[in-house]
Specification:
The protein is α/β, with parallel strands linked by helices. The chain has helices at about 25-40, 65-75, 90-100, 110-120, 125-140, 150, 165-200, 215-225, 265-270, 275-280, 295-310, 345-360, 380-400, and strands at about 10-15, 40-50, 80-85, 105-110, 205-210, 240-245, 250-255, 285-290, 315-320, 335, 335-340, 370-375. Keywords: Coiled coil, Cytoplasm, GTP-binding, Magnesium, Metal-binding, Nucleotide-binding.
């Protein structure tokens, strides 16, 4: 009999703890890397960390730590080693050379390559697939040298270049030609997308932004009442999705785009700039934050930094703290009641009410940006968020249509569209 169950590849994770980060931060980064690996159907067996001023320029980690990694990988027949930072072509070649001494073939991945793999898995539309392939080609191009090292040694004679160098030049030319082709293809797709957006200029545009896996797609489903793919995986959404929504007779466009993450590969930001136009050209941003995550404040900083990078940091923003049903805080007492685990169904509603009251009285409830505390999964406080959105949309809507209050309202027919 043959099993149909998919066999996961195995991996060990490697990170360097520099002077700029604490042990807790390093652990959190590795947990996120493990989540990325799991999203790619990779099973993490072990993690290695080393304290260094900066990653070793030769093999990322020191010689002794590299020997420990090799010993574990060889003994446990591990399929790949994943590093939490980008590796240079020299580092990849040196690491592979170290493993070759033990006659053990292993895949060497860095964080960027792992993220690129997930984007390739998630991309559905022609635009997203083209953007991902462009990012892949830009990643591969500077790393082509190591692929032909074994052939470059076969030199014919004085003044003669080895076949490895010929193959390398050929591959470089192919990669460069492909990059040019993909960029031209994206320009054509961007023109079509620009035309679509231009046709929607008379409507207020609201865009969901946030760290990956904070619940943006689930919230999109709640607000737009439309089927949008949502999953407890990193980068569940890669393609931009746009829906027409009507609140209080005012129609507006709600878009959901790719989530952000720390150390997001530069080539991905470049490739996805056209998709991120939905964010850049939005009138209002809904910045969704997973308040149950221990490092949600750092996630906010990552998102704000990325928004600055794409030129969207000055947009009117509503800060939406999501997953309040999962929020936990030790030794917090609200109205003389301690917030419990909330595992019991009959206590869940009471607990959410206590958490909401606590958060609204905390430093997180600021007027700028305006803040709302919700649970998209449990449909808690969604109505309050709707009212906040309506108020913000009305302010923008009146700027577009100054006589709106004196005119007949729009038809509220439901239309849906998805970016292709």
């Amino acid at each position: 009999m043959h099993t149909t169950e998919e066999v996961k590849e195995t991996a060990v994770l490697v990170a360097v703890q520099t002077q700029k980060q604490t042990a807790e931060q390093t652990k959190e980064y590795l947990d996120e890397l493990a989540f990325l690996a799991d999203t790619s159907q990779i099973n993490t067996l072990y993690t290695f960390t080393q304290k260094l001023e900066k990653p070793d320029t030769r093999t990322y980690v020191g010689k002794g730590k590299m020997q420990d990694i090799i010993a574990y990988v060889v003994d446990n027949d591990v399929d790949m080693v994943i590093f939490d930072d980008d590796l240079s072509p020299v580092q990849i070649r040196n690491i592979e050379t170290e493993f070759a001494k033990f006659q053990h073939e292993v895949k060497i991945l860095d964080r960027s390559l792992l993220i690129l793999n997930i984007f390739a898995m998630r991309a559905k539309t022609v635009q997203a697939k083209t953007q991902v392939e462009l990012a892949q080609q830009q990643y591969i191009l500077p790393r082509l040298t190591r692929m032909w090292t074994h052939l470059s040694k076969q030199r014919g004679g004085v003044g003669m270049r080895g076949p490895g160098e010929k193959e390398l030049e050929t591959d470089r030319r192919i990669a460069n030609d492909r990059i040019v082709f993909l960029k031209e293809k994206l320009k054509q797709i961007d023109k079509q997308a620009f035309t679509q957006r231009k046709n929607r200029d008379r409507m207020v545009r609201v865009s969901l932004v946030g760290y990956t896996n904070v619940g943006k797609s689930t919230l999109m489903r709640r607000l737009a009442k439309a089927e949008v793919f949502a999953e407890n995986k990193l980068f569940a959404t890669v393609d931009a999705t746009v829906r027409k929504v009507t609140f209080d007779t005012i129609p507006f466009l709600l878009s959901d785009t790719v989530g952000f993450i720390r150390k997001l590969p530069t080539m991905l930001i470049e490739s996805f700039k056209s998709t991120l136009d939905e964010v850049r050209e939005a009138d209002i941003l809904l910045h969704v934050v997973d308040i149950s995550h221990p490092n949600y404040e750092e996630h906010i900083e990552v998102v704000n930094s990325t928004l600055t990078e794409i030129g969207a940091a000055d947009k009117p923003t509503i800060l939406v703290f999501n997953k309040i049903d999962l929020f936990s805080s030790e030794e917090v007492v609200i109205n003389d009641w301690e917030i419990g685990s909330g595992n019991e169904p009959e206590n869940q509603q009471s607990r959410i009410e206590k958490v909401t009251a606590f958060l609204k009285n905390s430093y997180m409830n600021n007027p700028q940006p305006q803040t709302v505390f919700i649970s998209a999964e449990q449909k808690e406080n969604i109505e309050e968020l709707r009212e906040t959105i309506v108020k913000a949309v009305k302010e923008k809507h009146i700027l577009i249509f100054p006589n709106w209050l004196n005119e007949v309202h729009y038809s509220t027919d439901e239309l849906e569209e998805e970016e292709e």
